[in-house]
Amino acid sequence: MRLAVLKERRPDEARVAATPETVKKFLGLGLSVAIETGAGATSGILDSDYAAAGASIAPDAASLLAGAGIVLKVAPPLGTGEGAVDELALMPRGVLLIGALNAWGDPHRIETYASLGIDAAAMELLPRITRAQSMDVLSSQANLAGYRAVIESAVAYGRAFPMLMTAAGTVSAAKLFVLGAGVAGLQAIATARRLGAVVSATDVRAAAKEEIKSLGANFVGAEPEADAQTAGGYAKAMTPEFLAKQAEIVGAHLAKQDIAITTALTQGRAAPRLITAKMVEAMRPGSIIVDIAAEAGGNCELTRPGEEFVTANGVKILGWRNWPARLPAASSALYAKNLFTFLSSFWDKEAKAPVLKPDDEIIKGVMLTRAGLVVHPQFAPKPAQAA
Fold first, then answer.
1. Model pTM greater than 0.85?
2. What is the CATH T-level fold of the domain 145-326, as seen in this structure?
3. Which residues are catalytic?
4. Which residue from 14, 15, 9, 8 is spatially nearest to 337, judged by alpha carbons?
5. CATH 3.40.50.720: which residues of the chain?
6. How far apart are CA 188 and CA 154, in angstroms?
7. How far from 154 is each of 53, 145, 177, CA to CA, in Å?
8. How confident is the model over 125-181, as pLDDT tens digits?
9. Class assignment of domain 2-125+328-373?
10. How does pLDDT run across 93-107, given as a tens digit for each residue?
11. How far is CA 174 from each of CA 143, 160, 165, rounded to the nearest angstrom?
């Protein structure tokens, strides 16, 4: 079976879905591996590195995808009218497509997969269960996004993070506030603490309060509710009363901070608004807001997705899209391992092919389409109601 790795063509995407390390592991499963030329360039991986690992190098997408049985991607493949290359049209019927396919972003794309006979597995839908932890692309990428957010905030801030006592005087430590203590938020807390900032954080989930404290940060906010998260660990939508109380506490604290990093996402929905325009107006000139959720609309009301923006009162808001791709080498290495672990976990050694049983909890969670049909329960057409 031929495994193909496409070059990423979407704007702001610098990652790649395989590394020389995972190429060797795929070859060990009995696969042949083909890489599109230049696929790893933005992650610091040369075609010669892939060739040395045993992969063949295809000059273009058409030759790469001809006869492919499995295709690995980071971002969703391009379809008709989305770019110079219609990647979906080049894929053979029956191919297994694995990637972070942004299923919630464009449901029509899922119908296209089905109509083209592509069996699509969306890794961002992976269930949050113990068996799936090593395949969890959201966690591996969020971890690096949280780290990168702190590093970029330090550059934008223009002052030192730790307290510095010198003969010329004392420099106060930066005050950094993290909104949302999921994987990205917890990594942001840990990184900011290592850099010497005074760190505080908030979250609506009860379990997150203890995690915040365990990393040495101060918890700020209304008392979290015990049922504020889903079975998969995601935050639920909260009551208007709770949100009003939380906003009051967060707004007062935010006005005293130098840096705010927002990380809150709700799966399948626009990012919740945690920082209003009024809160930004109360912040000091030179303060920084880093909005990791910018791609989903942003946690800050004034975020401009894809841009750096300075408000009238001098607050700088970083709303870059695709934060993991701002660390492409590390992000690609972890993402590629996630994909290999997923595929190898369902690999049949004798058949030298994956066996994706429909009743497996992980497979039920990630498979969007199979054999020309939309099969995921959240996206499949609903049966017509009897009259």
1. yes
2. Rossmann fold (3.40.50)
3. 128, 133, 136, 139, 234
4. 15
5. 2-125+328-373, 145-326
6. 12
7. 38, 14, 13
8. 999 999 999 999 999 999 999 999 999 999 999 999 999 998 898 889 999 999 999
9. alpha beta
10. 999 999 999 999 888
11. 22, 7, 14
